[in-house]
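re: ur question from earlier - yeah i can do the single chain one, its not a big deal. heres the input i used so u can compare w yours
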Amino acid sequence: MSNENPPATQEPTPPRKSAPRRPDRGSSGNLFWYLMIGLVVAVLLFAFGGRDRNGTVLEFSELKAKLADGTLSRANVHELKIGPTAISFQDRPNKSTESSETPRRFTVPVLGMKEENQAALTAMLEKAGIAYGYQQEPPEWQQLLLLLAVPLMILAVFLFVFRKIGGAGSAMTFGRSRGRLYAQEDLGVTFHDVAGIEEAVEELREIVEFLRNPSKYQALGGRIPRGVLLVGPPGTGKTLLAKAVAGEAGVPFFGLSGSDFVEMFVGVGAARVRDMFQQAVQRSPAIIFIDELDALGKTRGSGMPGGHDEREQTLNALLVEMDGFASDQSVIVIGATNRPETLDPALMRPGRFDRHVLVDRPDIKGREAILKVHAGRVKMDDSVDLRHIAKLTPGFVGADLANLVNEAALLAARNNKTKVTRTEFEEGIERVVAGLEKQTRIIPEEEKIRVAWHEVGHALVACSLPHVDPVHKISIIPRGLGALGYTLQRPEEDRQLITRTELQNRICVLLGGIAAEEIVYQENSTGGANDLQRATDLARRMVTEFGMSPRLGRVHYSEGSRSQYLGTATAHMETAHSEETVREIDLEVRRLIDQAYETAFEILMHRRPAMEHLTKELLEREVMDADHLQVVLDQYRTGPRLKPGTAKSIEPPEDIPAEPDAEGLAQNG
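and the output i got, formated as tokens:
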């Protein structure tokens, strides 16, 4: 049970037509195959080296005895060969017709046989009428290959495993850059493929002109910018913009991530930085794109005094390379990050990253333009109004809108439709915001009724207060990981500033579900845990960050640094406030929560008949849209109609009491 806001964003995945080129591995890759070929040759020589190693082994004394008693004679001995280390023969001819059995092979070791014994043996063979011959010793080179077969095999296996683990083929290539050189046909992105961020595109067009015609600016004494930093929330298209610059300029594009420089070996990251810039200078004019720059360029000084860890050495190398170009080397570094507050000041100064380009969330016109780009790839019904879809997606970035169009297309295919309609787009918005709908999940009837009361409490408080986002839909169908129901609110326009009154009313809406459960059941459940957490966080930010507490004054008490684009805060271990101040902050947060809860409780108590009617309708329908919600509320309206979300003061209906606090929510009517 939650009151959903616009979703978190994700980093976009730029379209990629083909896999990027991999760097040439050089002779280290061919060495492995040369060793394997040599190993195969050695094994073949070992197998067919001229000496037969199969058969029964006889002692030399046994051979002499068999020759003496006539067991071995011309009739049953064939192909007898006398070698330097052994005597071999068969017991019958190879083409024997007497038996189908395979001829047996015998071997007699005679290593170091004396001359007199050899003379006696040849005499006995001649006496028995057995034909014999001599087998020559293998050449020295063949014996050497046989001896080296096992070491070569071990070396080949070692190189193969080392190459798989290290990814470079030898220890000398650890310092080589992992950046990939993308060909123009691999990029395939221009400014025509970028929509919704026209200001950032216009800022980068001058960079393209620098790369196309650097002499035009150098002739006037101008200096080409060393670096461009793309800053913005995840998913807004920073990587896509960098590729568009390379596609427009038609220059080599080296792309890599900040984490590619990080290695467990000291000095490897700095060596990779130098190698990366050396490759770019050789192909200048060129672009080096470093994604997630904060992984490499965080503020220095976090290590031990007098020490330099691997990350700081890598950052120092980057600082030197960026400020060490000659004026005729047209190499521009483009960095992308969503945490600019963590970057080192030396990296942000002019001369390194000269220009900072904000890639912000698109407004309604930008969202419509982005939807047109992605909707051109799907078959869309003529009734779909992309302007209306853009209005329903405040806070969405390019990645969210691309995901929305894809979800709508998948839903249309699942429903066996030939075109994507408005229904699929609206359902896709809910899937992106709230998660996948779980129609088959079994919920006890008692819990289902409690969820209905809870969600109606959210919606009714939202419809009873001004300066609140209008309710778009109420549902008691489970979605996502843990939401048993949700109340979906959509702002009527993009807002950049929020007043204290609006924040107070948002807290009232968040606590409306808990107040409804308290009215009906005289106790609340665990379903309001997320609402309570969000309300408390909002109240604490009002006190500590926004200076909206009359008791504590216009003072910033927050100690942690909050990311501008990620929304996450980092708390410090040590506090700069006294215990009394911390206690005052807790008391003020508690006062704001209690005051908002009392307001929501009183609204629901005085509108109890409308709440019961809405709950009954929601249990029957399971999903209620804004039009049906307004129809039910109109039946219980006894005063002027209150339009939620307006910026003007509107007199409240007769059935809504005024708030007791003159400085609180009563100022909204």
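The first helix runs from residue 27 to 47. not sure if urs matches, ping me
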